[in-house]
């Protein structure tokens, strides 16, 4: 079965493509290899999952500890899966408006409960890379290519491309793409006549599952499939007309069924308490640099930190970085596949998403050229305005893997000499982008006051604990991480999450809770080390903030500029602290 036959309703749909008998061993060997490679990439984190952090993304590592801890509370304490008051007390956090990975975190809740949130996150990152590679291998080998070796190459790239390894720096939601290949295949199956209900319901189930893993990836996949369908219809109009009716009927069933299931969660996400609109940054801030396609990512064996840093927004967003050899192989792939309408439509989808990933204007070598691009026309469209623009390029990376697999399959029809040249060239192209282990480093453990539950003697039931520094992005990394590691046992104010910046007047998305006078004051002291003059107005504001947070105690942990913070808190609260379990504690009447 060729890729064109796979999207042609006249081709048999029940049996998969015939594989070479001598290569069926890859059905067992490929997943083992993918799993070993996943462990290799995360090896430094596995050295101590609860005591180490991924160096390139400490903040997001902490936020996913929070997400798995929340899921543990859902399973073991019957908390609301869609909302929590354990972080950002008393307002809470809208978990549907955050990438709470419920479909992943709930199944591993026992791991979180008994082995710790750090182990759960490391496990999900490892299984995400492995599962994505294996899922693409499975779909490719069963439905799209004849050669198991070609499928193994496709799975290897789709699971371990530079963008995937980059996002393995803490982005559990982006490395867990193992549902996507099945969504793609089920969309292709919609063409089957007389099976609109069955195929539509199967697709709806996968859509619902992916919603609770990552909505951004689902959006990218839907856009890419839309472009693919349009491109295929343009290149093979007769085939498109023949399957249009069952395809649209099945798509309607999928849309209706998934909408019925998701109606309340999506309402809560976009209109419920803690919902927001837009991002805390303009759409042209995080875009893909054109030159990054020919460079190597910092986590590729041929990559260097200096070059990648110039061409990428961060170490977690090396979304292109194919390298020149792979770009050349993609050109070779299209030469081999040029007679295939499905391959050309696939390439078109990758190019369109790559163009969107470049943002509103073209950026080259870190400089905005001012050349306008089509994305400027849609950058403020609802839903589109919620994504990080450079991540559209992740789809292009997956498309590259599919084209390489299809070309490798087609290479089997070439003469022996050309076939050898193709495989040697492919090996040479892929070798420089092989992944390196992600850097991880030891992190400060929670003080005994938190780790041993000593807080229970000082914080009455129903009250919150105010840790200083307050948990926030960058400035409160340790306290944010400790909240997850201690499984959200005690409510804490503020935190690192997505919510409205200043409700109800301004519901623009923000990475922090709405500002409070005391949190602003303590942040300044933390950053500068300077003790400000404290007057009665500051004390009244602190009393009002502690009342708003329903605080039972304030705990100052080990942190830079601790002495300045202690002096400031003593002046604000009017009394000296007591040392308890590694913290300085002020009880709040």
UniProtKB/TrEMBL annotation:
Molecular functions per Gene Ontology: transferase activity
Record keyword Membrane present: yes
The keyword Endoplasmic reticulum appears for this protein: no
Keywords linked to the UniProt accession: Membrane, Transferase, Transmembrane, Transmembrane helix
Transmembrane segments: 29-47, 114-137, 149-165, 171-188, 195-213, 219-235, 247-267, 320-338, 345-366, 386-408, 420-438
Residues covered by the DUF6311 domain: 81-380
Stretches for region Disordered: 1-20
Superkingdom: Bacteria
UniProt protein name: Glycosyl transferase
Organism: Spirilliplanes yamanashiensis
């Amino acid at each position: 079965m060729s890729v064109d036959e796979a999207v042609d309703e006249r081709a048999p749909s029940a049996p998969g493509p015939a594989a070479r008998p001598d290569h069926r061993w890859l059905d067992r060997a490929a997943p083992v290899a993918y799993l070993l490679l996943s462990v290799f990439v995360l090896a430094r984190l596995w050295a101590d999952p609860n005591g180490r952090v991924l160096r390139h993304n400490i903040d997001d590592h902490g936020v996913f500890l929070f997400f798995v801890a929340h899921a543990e509370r859902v399973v073991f304490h019957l908390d609301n899966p869609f909302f929590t008051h354990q972080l950002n007390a008393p307002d809470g956090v809208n978990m549907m408006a955050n990438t709470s990975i419920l479909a992943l975190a709930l199944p591993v809740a026992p791991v979180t409960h008994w082995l710790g949130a750090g182990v759960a996150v490391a496990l999900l990152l490892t299984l995400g890379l492995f599962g994505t590679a294996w899922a693409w291998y499975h779909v490719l080998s069963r439905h799209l290519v004849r050669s198991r070796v070609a499928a193994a190459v496709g799975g290897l790239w789709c699971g371990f491309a530079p963008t995937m390894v980059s996002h393995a720096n803490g982005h559990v939601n982006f490395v867990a793409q193992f549902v996507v290949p099945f969504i793609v295949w089920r969309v292709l199956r919609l063409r089957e006549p007389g099976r609109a209900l069955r195929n539509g319901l199967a697709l709806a189930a996968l859509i619902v599952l992916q919603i609770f893993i990552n909505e951004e990836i689902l959006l990218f996949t839907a856009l890419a499939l839309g472009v693919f369908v349009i491109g295929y219809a343009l290149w093979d109009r007769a085939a498109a007309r023949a399957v249009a009716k069952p395809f649209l009927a099945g798509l309607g069933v999928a849309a209706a069924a998934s909408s019925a299931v998701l109606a309340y969660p999506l309402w809560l996400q976009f209109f419920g308490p803690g919902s927001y609109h837009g991002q805390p940054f303009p759409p042209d801030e995080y875009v893909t640099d054109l030159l990054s396609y020919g460079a190597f990512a910092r986590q590729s064996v041929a990559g260097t930190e200096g070059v990648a840093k110039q061409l990428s927004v961060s170490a977690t967003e090396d979304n292109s970085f194919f390298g020149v050899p792979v770009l050349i192989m993609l050109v070779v792939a299209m030469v081999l596949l040029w007679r295939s309408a499905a391959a050309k439509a696939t390439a078109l989808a990758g190019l369109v998403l790559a163009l969107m990933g470049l943002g509103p204007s073209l950026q080259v070598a870190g400089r905005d050229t001012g050349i306008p691009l089509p994305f400027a026309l849609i950058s403020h469209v609802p839903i589109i305005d919620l994504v990080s623009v450079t991540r559209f390029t992740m789809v292009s990376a997956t498309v590259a893997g599919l084209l390489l697999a299809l070309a490798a399959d087609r290479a089997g029809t070439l003469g022996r000499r050309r076939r050898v040249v193709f495989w040697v060239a492919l090996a040479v192209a892929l070798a420089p982008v092989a992944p390196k282990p992600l850097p991880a480093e030891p992190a400060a453990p929670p003080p005994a006051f938190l780790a041993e539950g000593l807080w229970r003697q000082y914080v009455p039931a129903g009250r919150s604990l105010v840790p200083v520094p307050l948990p926030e992005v960058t400035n409160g990394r340790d306290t944010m991480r400790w909240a997850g590691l201690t499984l959200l046992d005690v409510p804490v104010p503020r935190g690192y999450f997505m919510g409205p910046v200043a409700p109800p007047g301004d519901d623009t998305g923000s990475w922090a809770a709405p500002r409070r006078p005391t949190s602003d004051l303590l942040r300044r002291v933390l950053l500068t080390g300077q003790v400000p003059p404290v007057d009665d107005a500051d004390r009244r504001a602190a009393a009002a903030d502690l009342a708003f947070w329903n605080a039972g105690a304030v705990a100052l942990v080990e942190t830079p500029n601790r002495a300045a913070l202690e002096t400031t808190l003593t002046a604000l609260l009017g009394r000296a602290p007591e040392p308890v379990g590694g913290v300085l504690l002020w009880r709040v009447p």
